[in-house]
């Protein structure tokens, strides 16, 4: 194999792509140029397999100020407040080096936010790991949590919420998705397109080294046993420099001397120069000899592909560059003029007084390969087989319980087993690693509600001057999407919006992180294509435009037989919502003895397809998942928001994993209050386990102040006739959860202390730590 072929293989450049590169340039590229094309034409940077699918997303709306294409989306909250937000992944680096992989994932998404001129005010994460029975999974899990905590805590940005799932499908390839939110501090939104021929290009931040070499290409290939050899592709972050960079950049932007700004994230200098030039319709000339370095003997290829962290590239107004340099020096950061904007639309790189690379900017950043693949004409065999499954194949059950492996289990015992499963169990050990109250704007602590809630405090204003709040969530049920990518993706968007509504927030906009296997596999592409269609349809139905996000493909582990093992398709939905009055919000926990408990919305569209009960108790992933009826979904969410805004509700909690019994248990566990509940009659054709643990959309359990019963029920009857049911009452602290049939036969009778013991300690016990 020739050196050229070896380089192409390492960079993930296909033979047809190399031919295209030669045609674009009119000659063979040198090593540095080939490296530039390798990272910029990777899936991670150019979305060559996914961009055609992303075009169907709704991206415009009355509140959308910046949509896809910039470092982050920006949304208008009204009242002069603007929010920047985005989600990104650091999956492959975290699989190889969990601490630094996760930490630099946080650092990277923070830079996307403050590059727009926004001060980061909150972080969320969406994490997936394999079974905690595996020592490797435990190591990855603890390393990732430590990395997230390290970077967020050191930069003073609170991690206020998120989600964590555990499933064998993620054993070889964990998912680490991080969402950041920022409040705009600059009058003008800072964009990335370069302009102004002759304007200086300023390198700011940290020094450049060899860490993170080729990280974009590394993120665009399957993980193998040899991936540990790619540790140089994992970046190393410095959160203290990151904090200084936040402050220096925001100060610099306020001077008005910054024409354009770009984070040096994936593909480093290559990406920042090429994207800034292409977006501005200009070129950039750049001298590597002027770059501050921390290693000696670096060649152009290494400079251009390094992903050293905490670095930015500015286009400054000519004559004002020294003003910016002084700011960064004062913050203890590097700042040098390393290039200029030119009229010729190329990226020209100098090294040791010679041209090291000269490439058309659009060829790198815009005119990239696109693969419009054929979608399978019918669902693949695995899905068709799964859809044929029915609950009637499970062991018989009755209102007492179910027989499993020759032993009888009561429904109370089944509930305790579900509460102790890592996905449902308390994440207290995780949240305690995060400084979730720094900045003093976190209104509901992590785990206390279906969505995070923060106060939006205008810069320099007293807390009493603003009642505006922001809710945020990350959501996706990978099992649902695996079983039915179209309907599963719709369900993920609907659940994200429902979770915001459960705290009283109006859903506004979406950022998505599409985590999938190889698009070159027909099944993988079918999953990706249908999930994108589902997201598009759901976002239109719920009026939540997509402002941007991230695509992470090739999330597969090659096993010892050389066969790829893909993750569940996992399109994580990050969503934000507006709270007009932070005095009118609520969490998920029952708060007051005597409050009335209601189930609103879908009373019968439930089943065990893809359910947590089916996976944890019967070790099956099968069935048809319940479909979202969007007219009902919109009405249920509107009723919930109205009840919260009127001050009628003391709690609201979406029915999701584990069904209504887990929902009721979680509502008790957060406060220690008990509940006495009579379920609606068992619908004809449903089994008891389907009724108790079945899952379905458009269902929320709320608790209502007894004094507001008349007003609440009158409103329900008007807006959700025949789609609500009075369940019972909240009882005293440290009592029990008692669930009865309509004719008072006992289904569940379990002490709150017993539930709390297994739920609170299960995760910590699985990783052998104390809380």
Mean of the pLDDT scores? 93
Number of separate helices: 26
Largest sheet: 7 strands, mixed
The CATH architecture assignment of the domain at 1-41 and 191-368 turns out to be Alpha-Beta Complex
Read across the widest sheet, the strand sequence of neighbours is: 8-10-7-11-9-12-13
- Kindly report the CATH topology of the domain at 1-41 and 191-368: Phosphoribosyl-aminoimidazole Synthetase, Chain A, domain 2
Q: Looking at the structure, what is the overall shape?
A: globular
> CATH homologous superfamily of the domain at 1-41 and 191-368, by name?
PurM-like C-terminal domain
Poorly predicted regions are 460-464
Distance between the termini: 55 Å
User: Beta-sheet strand percentage?
Assistant: 25-35%
Roughly what percent helix? 25-40%
Cα radius of gyration in angstroms: 26 Å
Provide the structure class: alpha+beta
By CATH reckoning, the class of the domain at 1-41 and 191-368 would read Alpha Beta
Number of strands: 30
Q: Summed up, what is this model?
A:
The protein is of the alpha+beta class and 771 residues long. It is built from 26 helices and 30 strands.
Give an account of the 3D structure.
It is a single chain. Residues 460-464 have low confidence and may be disordered. The chain is 35% helix and 25% strand. By secondary structure, the protein is α+β, with helices and mostly antiparallel strands. Helix 19 (485-501) packs parallel to helix 20 (522-542). It is globular. Among the domains are: 1-41 and 191-368, PurM-like C-terminal domain (Phosphoribosyl-aminoimidazole Synthetase, Chain A, domain 2, Alpha-Beta Complex), CATH 3.90.650.10; 586-771, PurM-like C-terminal domain (Phosphoribosyl-aminoimidazole Synthetase, Chain A, domain 2). A seven-stranded mixed beta sheet has the order 8-10-7-11-9-12-13. Strands 25-27-24-28-26-29-30 form a seven-stranded mixed beta sheet, sandwiched between helices. The chain has a six-stranded mixed beta sheet with strand order 1-2-3-6-4-5. Helix 8 links the parallel strand 4 and strand 5 (159-166). The longest helix has 21 residues, at 135-155.
């Amino acid at each position: 194999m020739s050196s050229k072929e070896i380089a192409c293989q390492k960079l993930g450049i296909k033979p047809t792509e190399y031919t295209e590169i030669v045609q674009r340039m009119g000659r063979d590229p040198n090593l540095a140029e080939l490296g530039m094309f390798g990272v910029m034409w990777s899936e991670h940077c150019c979305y060559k397999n996914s961009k055609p699918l992303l075009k169907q997303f709704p991206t415009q709306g009355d509140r959308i100020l910046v949509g896809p294409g910039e470092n982050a989306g920006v949304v208008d909250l009204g009242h002069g407040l603007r929010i920047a937000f985005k989600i990104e992944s650091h999956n492959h680096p975290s699989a190889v080096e969990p601490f630094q992989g996760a930490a630099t994932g946080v650092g990277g998404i923070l830079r996307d936010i403050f590059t727009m001129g926004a001060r980061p005010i909150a972080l969320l994460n969406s994490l997936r790991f394999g079974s905690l029975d595996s020592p490797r999974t435990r190591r990855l899990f603890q390393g990732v949590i430590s990395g997230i905590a390290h970077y967020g805590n050191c930069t003073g940005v609170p991690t206020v919420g998120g989600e964590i799932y555990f499933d064998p499908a993620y054993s070889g390839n964990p998912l680490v998705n991080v969402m950041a939110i920022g409040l705009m501090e600059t009058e003008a939104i800072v964009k990335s397109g370069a302009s102004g021929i002759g304007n200086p290009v300023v390198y700011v931040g940290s020094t450049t080294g060899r860490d993170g070499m080729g990280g974009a290409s590394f993120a665009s290939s399957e993980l193998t046993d040899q991936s540990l050899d790619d540790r140089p592709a994992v970046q190393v972050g410095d959160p203290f420099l990151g904090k200084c960079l936040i402050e220096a950049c925001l100060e610099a932007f306020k001077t008005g001397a910054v024409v354009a700004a770009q984070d040096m994230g994936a593909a480093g200098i290559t990406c920042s120069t090429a994207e800034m030039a292409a977006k501005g319709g200009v070129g950039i000339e750049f001298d590597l000899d002027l770059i501050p370095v921390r290693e000696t003997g670096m060649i152009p290829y290494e400079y251009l592909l390094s992903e050293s962290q905490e670095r930015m590239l500015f286009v400054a107004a000519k004559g004002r560059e020294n003003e910016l340099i002084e700011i960064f020096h004062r913050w203890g950061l590097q700042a040098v003029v390393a290039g200029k904007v030119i009229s010729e639309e190329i990226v020209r790189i100098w090294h040791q007084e010679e041209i090291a690379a000269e490439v058309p900017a659009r060829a790198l950043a815009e005119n990239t390969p696109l693969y419009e693949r054929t979608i399978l004409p019918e669902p693949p065999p695995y899905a068709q087989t799964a859809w044929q499954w029915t609950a009637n194949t499970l062991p018989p059950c009755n209102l007492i319980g179910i027989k499993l492996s020759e032993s009888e289990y009561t429904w109370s015992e089944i509930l305790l087993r579900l509460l102790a499963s890592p996905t449902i169990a308390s994440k207290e050990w995780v949240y305690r690693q995060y400084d979730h109250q720094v900045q003093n704007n976190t209104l509901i602590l992590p785990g206390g509600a279906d969505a995070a809630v923060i106060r939006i405090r205008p810069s320099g204003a007293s807390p009493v001057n603003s009642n505006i709040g922001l809710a945020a969530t990350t959501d996706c049920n990978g099992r649902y999407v695996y079983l039915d990518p179209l309907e599963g993706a719709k369900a993920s968007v609907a659940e994200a919006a429902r979770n915001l509504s459960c705290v009283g927030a109006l859903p506004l906009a979406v950022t998505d992180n599409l985590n999938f296997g190889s698009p070159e596999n027909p099944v993988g592409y079918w999953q990706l294509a249908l999930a994108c269609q589902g997201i598009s349809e759901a976002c239109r139905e719920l009026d939540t435009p997509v402002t941007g996000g991230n695509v992470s493909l090739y999330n597969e582990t090659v096993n010892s037989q050389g066969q790829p093992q893909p993750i569940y398709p996992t399109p994580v939905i990050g969503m934000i919502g507006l709270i007009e009055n932070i005095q009118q919000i609520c969490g998920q926990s029952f708060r007051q003895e005597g409050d009335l408990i209601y189930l609103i919305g879908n009373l019968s569209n439930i089943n065990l397809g893809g359910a947590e009960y089916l996976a944890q108790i019967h070790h099956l992933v099968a069935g048809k998942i319940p479909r979202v009826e969007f007219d009902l979904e919109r009405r249920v969410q509107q009723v919930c928001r109205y009840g919260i805004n009127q001050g009628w509700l003391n709690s609201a909690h979406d029915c999701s994993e584990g069904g209504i019994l887990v929902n009721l248990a979680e509502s008790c566990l957060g406060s220690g209050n008990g509940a006495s509940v009579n379920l609606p009659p068992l619908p004809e054709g449903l089994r008891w386990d389907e009724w108790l643990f079945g899952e379905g959309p458009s269902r929320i359990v709320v608790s209502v102040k007894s004094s507001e019963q008349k007003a609440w029920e009158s409103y329900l009857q008007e807006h959700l006739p025949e789609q609500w049911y009075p369940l019972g009452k909240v009882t005293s602290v440290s009592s029990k959860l008692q669930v009865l049939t309509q004719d008072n036969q006992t289904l569940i009778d379990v002490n709150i202390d017993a539930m709390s013991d297994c739920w609170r300690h299960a995760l910590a016990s699985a990783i052998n730590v104390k809380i």
